[in-house]
Amino acid sequence: MLKKSIIPLGIIIFLSCTICLASEKNLKLVQSFEIQIHSNISPFIFRLVAHPDDERISQIEVLKKGDPTILQVLESRMDDKPYQNADYFQAKDFNFDGYKDIRLMIMWGATGNVIYDYWTFDPIKNIFVFHKALSSIYGDPIINYETKELSTFLRGGMVGKVYTRNTYKFMNSDLILVRQEKQDWIQEKKHFIRIIRERNNGELKTVKEEIIDK
Q1: Is the distance from CB of 206 to CB of 179 less than 8 angstroms?
Q2: Which of 118, 140, 162 is the last residue of a domain?
Q3: pTM > 0.90: yes or no
Q4: What are the C-alpha distances in Å from 52 to residues 23, 57, 59, 181?
């Protein structure tokens, strides 16, 4: 039976959660998504498939709505099967060019930290291109469309009191770390130290360092 429901934070229509054979390669279809990348472009269909004996997503097949031709096959690096109710496939404009891109959660940990693989949309070639820099980010970026920045928060130990907060910005198409706030526990002194660094003249420089009592 075909099911449709809107997934928050992306124009994604959940088409089917029935596991079935996806192709002659004996793959099984895990989920299919219909996504409107841009108002001037007809919707894409993304089929997430896995090997029958493994629930990890092995690849993403990209098609156009109404056309059975597979336009692209995007290889997945998913480390383990998604945890229950995980929102592991999403479409958002991650590089602020006006077109939605896609990402797939590939790793996650007990602290809540996650890693995604990203494919940005190339409107000239009409394809999705693996983005190495975005895929190197640890964490789930918060998108600020006003400042055109991506921010992540990585939890460490001590119930999140040890952490790293990074802010990234695209500069000439390159993803650059522009600010970092890092807090660590200094065991021998029994206190935290928080260091804030900001990019200035092409380098991250310390702008503030403070001791935080336990």
Answers
A1: no
A2: 140
A3: no
A4: 12, 10, 13, 43
